[in-house]
Amino acid sequence: MVYDKTKNISTTSVNTNNNNINNNCTTMMNPSRSVILMVDPYSTGCMIAQEISKRGYPIVAIWTKDISPEMKSATHIPISCRDLRYLAQIDDLPEWTLSNLVDAIRATVKSAAMRLGEPEDYFAVGGCMAGGEAGVDAADRLSERLGVTSNGAR
Asked: ∠102-58-138 over CA atoms, to 5°?
């Protein structure tokens, strides 16, 4: 990792001669292939999702078990976000465990790729963040389980 004080950025060198570069490296260079999970993206969280989307990242909304239908309605979505389109939305069903939710995320991301005419491994989960207070614990558990940057669940 190299820090460039003049540009206030950090960069990581990648050995392109290595045939074992993992998929996350590819998706970080191409945001359109790196899915960001937004857990309960209502109110201000919807605005965060919109900003991430503007940078080229597809967003998958995860709605936790305890989120009310009202929180997903237009009354809790800022007017400036009404045009935001998610790659997919997943409702965490009452009977699901964390493993079931992770399986649903993986299946949904594969399905979305194929729906767009891409191979099923086209997308990789590049991040997971809470879109609202209700989603903080779930986002931490999911990010840990998926191996993406996390605040941690402990």
From this structure: 35
User: Chain centroid to CA 1: how far?
Assistant: 24
C-alpha dihedral (137, 70, 112, 117), degrees to nearest 10: -150
In three-state secondary structure terms, 53 is: helix
pLDDT digit string (tens) for 31-90? 899 999 999 998 888 889 999 999 999 999 999 998 877 776 666 676 777 788 999 999
pTM exceeding the 0.85 threshold for the entire prediction: no
Joined together, the tokens standing for residue 92 give 């965490």
d(CA 64, CA 121): 25
Judge contact between 31 and 56, C-beta under 8 A.
yes
Longest CA–CA span in the chain (Å) reads 52
